[in-house]
Write a structure and sequence with these properties.
The chain has helices at 25-43, 47-52, 125-134, and strands at 6-11, 55-66, 75-86, 89-98, 101-114. With 136 residues, it is α+β, with helices and mostly antiparallel strands. It has a five-stranded antiparallel sheet with strand order 1-3-4-5-2. β4 (89-98) and β5 (101-114) form a beta hairpin. The longest helix has 19 residues, at 25-43.
Length: 136
């Protein structure tokens, strides 16, 4: 996938669908989080490493554009990349595919805060560097 170098897969569980077996729109937001956590595990020591560093990474926005229905028991590939890392903010972009067909795409925005005070704080240098290396 052009411009994306990381992906993970999810299999649609029955609980994530409606009465017709179509994936519920809210499930997509959960899958973005699954992909984001996997991305951090692969490139930055995992989300817990961020927390252990005294920082929380809060989600400040979610946008999903649905293009095709997804169904119970299908496997989806979620391509993920982290962009716009600056100050206390960063953004993930996503593309969700089924057998090469785009099912949805979108992005999430995030901000880092001090774990004790919940006041905005710059992204730690080690994390910014890990995210930059992941996108090289």
């Amino acid at each position: 996938m052009e411009a994306f170098s990381f992906s993970t897969e999810v299999r649609i569980r029955f609980a994530e669908t409606d009465a017709q077996g179509i994936a519920h729109h809210a499930s997509f937001v959960v899958w973005l989080e699954v992909a984001r956590v996997a991305y951090l595990a692969a490139h930055a020591g995992g989300y817990q490493a961020i927390r252990d560093g005294g920082v929380e990474a809060l989600t400040t926005g979610v946008y999903v554009r649905y293009q095709r229905a997804a169904y119970f028991d299908e496997t989806l590939r979620i391509w993920t990349r982290c962009t716009d890392v600056r100050g206390a903010r960063f953004r993930y972009g996503y593309r969700i595919e089924r057998a090469g067909e785009i099912v949805a795409d979108g992005y999430t925005t995030h901000a880092t805060v001090d774990r004790e005070t919940y006041l905005p704080t710059r992204i730690p240098a080690w994390l910014a560097e890990a995210l930059a290396r992941a996108e090289e």
